[in-house]
Backbone:
């Protein structure tokens, strides 16, 4: 399993099970014409979190909107978003959890590398 797959597995376990578009078991109930922003933009989300270099949630959210939301069809040129306004954007709603998932996974990976260097 590569790192991106690991992140997605963690998101499915910790986010999809509580997502408003899910069934509490991690299964998505979005229509076949909609895609989950978390899955579609996962590489970009990982990059934003990994390169944030700040613990400020507001700063991380700003970077997310500048580097990920701008790619989304729902994002308007004035940086507004109907899904964010309605509270139905999974990325906006669950971003704090996603930040923690990515940070925790990166720490585990770093610790595993240190441990293997000494064994």
Residues:
């Amino acid at each position: 399993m590569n790192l991106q797959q690991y992140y997605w597995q963690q998101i499915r376990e910790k986010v999809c099970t509580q997502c408003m578009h899910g069934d509490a078991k991690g299964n998505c109930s979005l229509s076949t014409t909609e895609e989950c922003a978390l899955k579609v933009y996962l590489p970009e989300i990982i990059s934003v979190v990994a390169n944030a270099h700040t613990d400020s949630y507001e700063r991380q959210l700003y970077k997310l909107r500048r580097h990920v939301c701008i790619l989304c069809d729902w994002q308007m040129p004035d940086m507004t978003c109907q899904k964010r306004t309605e509270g139905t954007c999974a990325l906006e709603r669950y971003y704090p959890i996603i930040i923690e998932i990515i940070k925790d996974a990166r720490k585990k990976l770093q610790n595993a590398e240190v441990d293997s260097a000494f064994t």
Notes: The chain has a mean pLDDT of 87. The two ends are 22 Å apart (CA to CA). Residues 3-111 form one domain.
